[in-house]
């Protein structure tokens, strides 16, 4: 066994044992999705815009065309709350309503991903996430 597979085995085992931690992380995703949806509704922006842009962060999966390591880097850069929060703060300060709407859509997408168990990726493959192994293991 390689060191990476031993570490991932420990992560997967640890994640399986600490289901309360996974539950809290998914609950956190639900909270982020709910708050961002309520705030989006208060902006008065079009729900068509919401629907049109909601899957846009998943275009980051194209990074996997360059390999697992680059794919994980690109995917994780787009699927963290840091950038949409910074965008939202800038939008509020500059009174840029469209940018605020985009930031809230982006945050909602990330929250729903976390709620559904799609976590940040490790370089070992798309299915290896901080929330455990995503998908079915191959025999």
Short description:
The chain is mainly α and 139 residues long.
H-E order: HHHHHHEEE
* Overall spatial form: globular
Give the class from helix and strand content and strand pairing: mainly alpha
| Beta-strand residue fraction | 5-15%
Count of individual domains: 1
Radius of gyration: 17 Å
Largest sheet: 3 strands, antiparallel
**Approximately how much helix is present in the residues?**
55-70%
Mean pLDDT: 87
Low-confidence runs of at least 5 consecutive residues: none
What does this protein look like?
The chain is 65% helix and 6% strand. A 3-stranded antiparallel beta sheet has the order 1-2-3, sandwiched between helices. The chain has 6 helices and 3 strands, in the order ααααααβββ. A hairpin with a 2-residue loop joins strand 2 (125-129) and strand 3 (132-133). It has one domain. The chain is mostly helical.
Summary keywords:
139 residues; mainly alpha; three-stranded antiparallel sheet; 6 helices; globular
Write the layout of secondary structure elements.
Elements: H1 3-17, H2 19-43, H3 47-53, H4 68-78, H5 82-94, H6 97-115, E1 121-122, E2 125-129, E3 132-133
Antiparallel strand pairs: 1-2, 2-3
